[in-house]
Amino acid sequence: MRSHEISPAKQREIERMMKPALTDAQWQRLVAFGEPQEVAEGDYLFQAGDLDYDLILVDTGEVEIVRVAFGWVDETVVGTMGPRSFVGELGLLNGQGAFLTARASRAGRMLRVSRARLRLLMAEDDELCDIVLHALWARREMLRRGPAALTLKLVGPRSSRDFLTLRRFAERLDLVHTAVELVPGELRALAEHGITLDDLPVAFIQGEPMPRATPGLVAERLGLSYQARADEVVDLVVVGGGPAGLAAAIYGASEGLDTVLLDAVAPGGQAAATSRIENFLGFPFGVSGGDLIDQASLQALKFGVRVYAPCEAVDLRPVGDDIDIALTDGRLIRTRTVIVTSGAAYRTLDLERWSEFEGAGIYYAATPLELRQVLESPVVVVGGANSAGQASLYLAANGCPVHLVVRGSDLGTRMSSYLVDRLLEDPRIDVHTGSRIVGLDGGSALERVNIDSVGDVAARGLFCFIGAEPATSWLAELDRDADGFLRTGTDVSVQSLQRWQGLGREPLPFETSVPRIFAAGDVRRGSMKRVAAAVGEGSSAVASVHRALADFR
To answer: 162 to each of 168, 183, 307, 363, 478, how far by Cα in Å?
Structure first.
């Protein structure tokens, strides 16, 4: 979840990238990928809601980009594109349906570049790929600040867990949208649409209300849910969109594998919830988890990874020479190989009213989205590892007095020394070692936290960073250790090796107890729980995938 505020200089850079000036040679190479079409004034090139549409090259004539009229707002022309330009934005790459309409405002010759041809262009012409990708990204950035943001409008109470989940989904998938927070119990003008309090949160998609909206329902309407192609068998499915999963998908697709990436929520995993990563290679001044995941997600789209979220896998089993992955809605994805990077689920404290305050004061991330919920109010952070330290510094820097609660007696046991020093020096942070949280209190939202060593403290938010359990309960057939982590490579237990005798080999690095099913990142036994390590494991697992596919073929 990112803040999309930009500086004037960045604004000018984005505006320049939106409409790149193409040389004669670049334009000729670009039009070679399109199918020509003569259009008359008023013709539609694509319309809002179309699930399959093309990149439009304007050779002559002009196209206007329109946010269509809704029940309460008039039609708005968002922009126009003249000769030697192209019409489209980032949704072309991630499979999202069109949320704007393209209409010819002057007759002329246009060319259509299908999504398949666009991917071919990006694979074959590095220069054009960079130009087009920068333009599509820049247009997405500009659209989120204008009338186009009303094409997806999310409305709900600020303290609602379901509304927060919906907003997190939209922000993590980088959807152009508007979020409207209601005071609990109020409806404003929603009653005019027949909406009741029980219908919240509501998603207005192209002006049409979707009561009791969920990420899955919104994704289905926007064309972001998995749709199998006829008799399709993909080369690689990556289950889990954290750093390990994104790295695996990017390396797989960049090396020619037909790659699908699934995530139960949205790409990013726990890394997207990290306010600042300071020890990642190449970022001497640190980088937010959200920004890092933004760039990785864009890179995945560039190489043709098909990203689907929310899309939760619930079963995985070999079927003949292939592997079937079952999704929660009953759909199946058939693949030749799988890399499991499903990460881990957040641990919770065994306290009364915990579930009641989740989403209404209890959070598992400290990003701009959560920061808006607590404003400049006092908060409590619990945990003794780097994520808790980073969250404490981020919240304090944004005006929140912080109580950091650590169960152990030594802050440096699990936390990097640079963080320990900064925490102890920050006057806005009170560190309580050898302490536990023993109680929660408040009305409809969290108001107070009881710490055994100091008693009750005021708290608008409790940020929980006490670790996670591996998300492997759906993988009963795979060899796991006592804590549920997946065994891989030489760590696979002896009794599981019997199935390998027919292959004449042992498990490859990162390969689980079932051939051609691999694991990387936090879900794997023995992995180092760091972003850089997860990226390395995800990319390295792809090397083993290639070896397994070579043996299989």
So the answer is: 10, 15, 23, 13, 33
- CB of 487 within 8 A of CB of 493? yes
The C-alpha atoms of residue 254 and residue 95 are separated, in whole angstroms, by 18
Q: Is the peptide bond before 201 cis (omega within 30 degrees of 0)?
A: yes
From CA 518, how far away is CA 512, in angstroms rounded?
Answer: 5
In DSSP terms, which residues pair with 322 in a beta bridge? 319
420: left (phi over 0), alpha (psi -120 to 50) or beta: alpha
What are the structure tokens assigned to 203, written together?
Answer: 């998603």
Position 55, amino acid: L
- Strand segments, DSSP code E, in 366-516 are 379-382, 402-406, 429-433, 437-442, 446-451, 455-458, 461-464, 468-470
| 160 closest CA partner among 195, 199, 128 | 199
pLDDT at residue 281, as a whole number: 85
Q: Which residue has the higher pLDDT, 192 or 201?
A: 201
The model's pTM: 0.81
Find out whether 396 and 275 touch, Cβ atoms under 8 Å. no
* Closest alpha carbon to 506 in 447, 551, 460, 453: 551
Kindly state the tokens that stand for 163: 């509304």
Average pLDDT over all residues of the chain? 90
How far is residue 414's CA from residue 430's CA, in Å, rounded to a whole number?
18
Query: Tell me: the pLDDT tens digits for 233-261?
Result: 999 999 999 999 999 999 999 999 999 99
Q: Supply the pLDDT for residue 530.
A: 78
Beta-bridge mates of residue 339: 238, 518
